[in-house]
Amino acid sequence: MLQIPAVEFHQVKKQYGELEALKEISFSVEEGSFFGLLGPNGAGKSTLINAMSGLIVPSSGRIKIKGFDVIDDYRHTRRILGLVPQELISDPFFSIRELLQLQSGYFGLKGAKQSAWIGELLERLALSDKSDANTSQLSGGMKRRVLIAMALVHKPQVLVLDEPTAGVDVDLRRTLWEFTKELHQQGHTVILTTHYLEEAEALCEKIAIMQDGEVKALDSTHALLSKHTYRYLRVTLSQAAYQLIPALEQRLVEREHNGLVFKLEKTASMTELLAWLHENQLQVTDISSRDASLEEVFLDLTSGETT
Ligand code: ADP
Ligand code: MG
């Protein structure tokens, strides 16, 4: 039997006046996958995520969560999704624990089992000793944790996190990644937008790169990296080389002490470089080559350069 995708976007458009925030987005997120949504500020990531969560209504197109339409079956899809929004909240009236209980109530969840789950969430997100604090007294990082706890209160099948680590310290970031990884291993689908491309590279199985309301690339992380046509060659010399020939200068992307890093087409010949080293009697002490990182692929895709 064909598996129903966790999320399906069908020709989703969103217009704000003249601005096309989403141009016509169509793709699916497989159930159980760890999916990354990347793109520069203003690309449309939050708009897409908010449309998926029913917070905004697309101008046209449809979104389905586990086969259910986000608008026609709002209550049902809302139950499947857990959203950690980008914007921080604070509520002057309620403590953290009260907010989590209220959120549980919204989903009709109560009793000892639910209280135990709330306790576990508070524990895992290092909020236990603050659970009676008013949310308006919390730091940005703490508020972020509260939002994550609120999204997880009903154990959603699909967890959607919009820049959960923006402005969060290294410790909390690590805790969050461990926690989301664990949820993914338990079978939850995780959809994440992030500015930390190294982490997207480490965590996400599939990645969509958005820009100006369009999906520029969508593939498995491995394929995105291996399809990239460049590699990076680091040459370390026994002394600093200041004057490069123009053909090499054009390909130089980094220079530090005696090290030079060149960005080369994977198919390019290294004859020029070797000839130059030889002619200038430069002693090479080390040479290494590596494939592009996700950050470099991302920059190439979003800076308008063709790859
Ligand atoms: P991202 O999350 O990728 O940074 P957003 O989805 O927040 O991008 O925004 C996409 C574009 O839509 C931006 O140009 C933003 O200014 C615009 N936009 C978002 N929300 C609104 C709104 N409520 N009214 C008008 N324009 C909006
Ligand atoms: Mg955003």
What secondary-structure arrangement, pairings included, does this model have?
Layout: E1 7-16, E2 19-29, E3 34-38, H1 45-52, E4 60-65, E5 68-69, H2 74-80, E6 81-84, H3 96-106, H4 112-124, H5 140-152, E7 158-162, H6 170-185, E8 189-193, H7 197-203, E9 206-211, E10 214-220, H8 221-227, E11 230-237, H9 246-249, E12 252-256, E13 259-265, H10 271-279, E14 284-291, H11 294-302
Parallel strand pairs: 3-8, 3-9, 6-7, 7-8
Antiparallel strand pairs: 1-2, 1-4, 4-5, 9-10, 11-13, 11-14, 12-13
Adenosine-5'-diphosphate (ADP) binds next to strand 2 and helix 1.
Detailed description of the structure:
By secondary structure, the chain is of the alpha/beta class. It folds into two domains: 7-225, P-loop containing nucleotide triphosphate hydrolases (Rossmann fold, 3-Layer(aba) Sandwich), CATH 3.40.50; 229-291. 34% of the residues lie in helices and 29% in strands. The chain has helices at 45-52, 74-80, 96-106, 112-124, 140-152, 170-185, 197-203, 221-227, 246-249, 271-279, 294-302; strands at residues 7-16, 19-29, 34-38, 60-65, 68-69, 81-84, 158-162, 189-193, 206-211, 214-220, 230-237, 252-256, 259-265, 284-291. It has a six-stranded mixed sheet with strand order 6-7-8-3-9-10, sandwiched between helices. A four-stranded antiparallel sheet has the order 2-1-4-5, with helices on one face. Strand 7 (158-162), helix 6 (170-185) and strand 8 form a beta-alpha-beta unit. Helix 3 (96-106) crosses helix 4. The longest helix has 16 residues, at 170-185. The chain is elongated and about 80 Å long. The structure holds adenosine-5'-diphosphate and magnesium ion.
